[in-house]
Specification:
Elements lengths: L1 E8 L5 H19 L3 E6 L5 E7 L3 H9 L7 E7 L6
Antiparallel strand pairs: 1-3, 1-4, 2-3
Length: 86
């Protein structure tokens, strides 16, 4: 199942958020190597990120998203994507 996640910071950027950015990048790279995260698009002001994930279920998606170091700082909107090509 493929999902689009819209991640928006739920507070202004802070030292704590900035300090976690390298770990967030590293975790994202691991998820990409595992074939879970397929694409990342970042807004110019860095306040919003759109990502495409491929997970066996919504539960697996939630578990993977919770592994992100910035998880508690994101408001996450999830949209399941159609499996059919148009």
């Amino acid at each position: 199942m493929r999902f689009m996640l819209k991640l928006t910071l739920n507070q202004p950027a802070s030292e704590e958020i900035t300090a976690r950015l390298p770990a967030e990048k590293d975790r994202g790279e691991v998820l990409e190597e595992q074939g879970i995260r397929e694409a990342v698009y970042v807004a110019a002001d860095r306040s919003t990120v759109w990502t495409v994930w491929n997970c066996a279920s919504r539960e697996a998606l939630d578990e993977a998203a919770r592994s992100l170091p910035l998880y508690k700082f994101w408001d996450i909107e999830v949209t399941q994507l159609a499996e059919d090509d148009f």
